[in-house]
Design goal:
Elements lengths: L2 H4 L30 E8 L6 E8 L19 E2 L3 E3 L11 E7 L11 E6 L2 E5 L1 H23 L16 H12 L1
Antiparallel strand pairs: 1-2, 3-5, 4-5, 5-6, 6-7
The structure holds zinc ion.
Length: 180
């Protein structure tokens, strides 16, 4: 029986499919993995005692599991590229709202399966598919309200762009208008 045969093939019974490499440093031959996933090396363990393991990593995951060590295999967390919404003019004062895919196989709640993470001012909440779609509907309705209100505004005054310290958010809005 090869080591590949002994590797878990699904996440149903084993939250985090992984195997510790024999020397702790050397990669083993990667076993077959299910569609939409890849085996990715990950560093786990306390500082000074870290080993490289292989984890089932969804293709949308952008986390470098080698560069971002986890305390143990159950702590490995997968994150997708965020979609970012900047509303505050002063971004240094108010972090953006971000949404991204997230999957924490070692979790015992909704994050145990791929979910939508919503990060508002560094407070992260996670939602399963139904709840995430409901949030999307709310945001779409919000966007429609923004559009309806904006369309009632008078035309812009001519831009006199001489202030190098012009508010960055306003600059982006103007650039967006130029492109559209
Ligand atoms: Zn990952």
């Amino acid at each position: 029986m090869s080591i590949i045969d002994r590797l878990p093939q699904t996440i149903v019974d084993v939250p985090v499919p992984y195997t510790v490499t024999e020397a702790g440093e050397h990669a083993i031959e990667a076993p077959a993995i299910k569609a939409g996933h890849r085996l990715a090396p990950a560093r786990v363990g306390r500082p000074g005692e870290q080993v490289t393991i292989w984890v089932e990593c969804p293709n949308w995951c952008i986390t470098d599991h080698l560069a971002d060590p986890a305390g143990n295999a159950q702590d490995v967390n997968h994150q997708g590229a965020p979609a970012v919404l900047h509303l505050a003019a002063d971004q240094a004062m108010s972090p953006p709202t971000e949404v991204y895919l997230s999957w924490w196989p070692g979790s015992d709640d909704v994050a145990a399966r791929p979910c939508l993470a919503v990060d508002v001012d560094c407070e992260v909440a996670v939602y399963g598919r139904t709840a995430a779609l409901a949030i999307a509907d709310q945001i779409a309705a919000f966007a429609q309200s923004v559009r309806l209100l904006s369309e009632t505004l008078p035309d812009d005054a001519p831009v006199i762009d001489s202030d190098p310290d012009m508010d960055e958010a306003l600059r982006r809005v103007r650039e967006g208008e130029v492109r559209s």
